[in-house]
């Protein structure tokens, strides 16, 4: 299994266009501290790629990786489709960015598809540009990620019923946000990708215990961070993101796993966006990492 980390920032990116916080200002001063919106590319057995979440940065994210660039034919692309973990704007606005293609395959849960069709009207809006195919992300049992290629298998594990703000009154469903479990029968490797995590259900615990690599929600360092930094009146948990640190935080759970564990989807208020922050040492002591744009994971 081959995974390319295409971006590691939460909504807004780092720097965020209208933000002068220390994290964003630091990234303007030092381009190495920039982070694009969280996304992952996954290679199929025939050498094509699925991107997990389509961010506002997707054009640059594709162009920034030789593996994802077009060719050899003028309009050939190795991109086979998009898998969505949720319907949040930072994970879906990039779908429209890909409209130059002949066909676009999107794999998601039913509530996510419904939000994109009924609220964002992506089906109607994109129909004159490209043909879209929607596939349901399996939640019970694994299915091939690519129908045409045996090999890599995928399952969605519900981790949050949080609806995007633009669909706040849409029907409740426990699969608004899922973690993705990717299993490669060839190598026997399993990866878990969960850039948004409001809860840690038993199903996720079982999947994490079996995984070789776990990449999870690192939006906020601690539960009070959004309130302390003044970006929200809610806590991290209240915003649908388990914090890293503290009781009930993800660090103590990840530290118990045998998997390689990395954080992604960092908000610009997270102290981890500063490479010199002492919080990096805290994670290192627990054997945990922060994913970077460009991190390559081979399992
Ligand atoms: C989230 O991760 O909670 C969302 O992306 C927040 C947002 O963009 O409104
Ligand atoms: Mn987000
Ligand atoms: Zn900022």
Topology at a glance:
Layout: E1 2-7, H1 22-29, E2 39-43, E3 49-52, H2 58-63, E4 79-83, H3 89-92, H4 94-97, E5 103-108, H5 110-119, H6 122-126, E6 131-136, E7 143-146, E8 149-160, E9 177-184, E10 189-194, H7 202-210, E11 213-217, H8 225-228, H9 250-255, E12 260-264, H10 279-285, E13 288-290, E14 296-298
Parallel strand pairs: 3-4, 4-5, 5-6, 10-11, 11-12, 12-13
Antiparallel strand pairs: 1-2, 1-14, 2-3, 7-8, 8-9, 9-10
Bound molecules: D-malate, manganese (II) ion and zinc ion.
The site of manganese (II) ion has 6 residues, from loops.
Radius of gyration: 18 Å
CATH level-1 class? Alpha Beta
Major β-sheet annotation: 7 strands, mixed
The CATH topology: Metallo-beta-lactamase, Chain A
The H-and-E topology, N to C, reads as: EHEEHEHHEHHEEEEEHEHHEHEE
**CATH 2nd-level architecture:** 4-Layer Sandwich
Enumerate how many helices there are, as a single number.
10
Going by helix content, strand content and strand pairing, the class is alpha/beta
Low-confidence stretches: none
Side-by-side strand order of the widest sheet: 6-5-4-3-2-1-14
Compute the number of structural domains.
Answer: 1
What can you see in these coordinates?
It is a single chain. The chain is of the alpha/beta class and 299 residues long. 21% of the residues lie in helices and 26% in strands. The model has no long low-confidence stretch (mean pLDDT 97). The strands form two sheets. It has a seven-stranded mixed β-sheet with strand order 6-5-4-3-2-1-14. The radius of gyration is 18 Å and the shape is globular. The chain has one domain: 4-Layer Sandwich (Metallo-beta-lactamase, Chain A), CATH 3.60.15.10. The protein has helices at residues 22-29, 58-63, 89-92, 94-97, 110-119, 122-126, 202-210, 225-228, 250-255, 279-285; strands spanning 2-7, 39-43, 49-52, 79-83, 103-108, 131-136, 143-146, 149-160, 177-184, 189-194, 213-217, 260-264, 288-290, 296-298. D-malate binds at residues 10-11, 88-90, 165, 196, 239-240.
